[in-house]
Amino acid sequence: MNTFEKHGVMNLSPSTINLWIEQPALCLLKIAGINDGRAGPAAWRGTAADRALGAVAQNPNITDRDAIIHALQVYNDQEQSAIDPHRDEKIEQERADIERYVTSGAKFYRSLQEPLESTQGRVIVKLDGASVPYIGYYDLLYADTVRDTKTTGRMVSKLTQAHCRQASIYALAMGREPWIDYVGKKEVRAYRVENVPYWVRQVELATQSLERVLSFSDNTLECCQLVYPDLDHWKWGETTRQAAKDIWKMEG
Asked: pTM higher than 0.85 for the full model?
């Protein structure tokens, strides 16, 4: 067994390696099986909009109203299956914003003059220097491009490095030009990811750094002692915060 397999990691994902870069301690807890349950309202909204906009990309004749209804159903399903509690006002605010995200995104995807091949596709790719494969899911695959939809409350002016790493894995797997489409409530800004080999190399280097930390011990919780948690970060929830206090012995 290689180092990852000893920790029960049979494959990696773009989100896992991005979490390792951003919040190493939280990534190690996730590998150890300690999670905060399912995502919250903002993530539900993102998933709901993704599914609705994928339907519009497949069939541009779908009305905005039908796309919004579809998105709301996806959102409600996620709310009903949520494990952790969330503030009612946050749930309702994200639900209310769905219409604007879908309307904005639908106009953009109808304007693309490129044949769509598939939505929500699974990719598997083996990177040099990584002892386990990467598995991910793209949003939209066109004849010449692979696109990922990101709903955002505050419109961005450039690509994030995390999104460049994610999209480059999809580009490597599919052999298409990678794009990130930032869907806001008023507009969509689409950016092409440049220099895919560079970003793939960054994923490889980050993967190797994670593997080196995991090689410290076959016990993932012992590996946690090599880093220290940032409990102020918004990605930490009650379950992981409490686990961190126990693992890092944060008495007081």
From this structure: yes
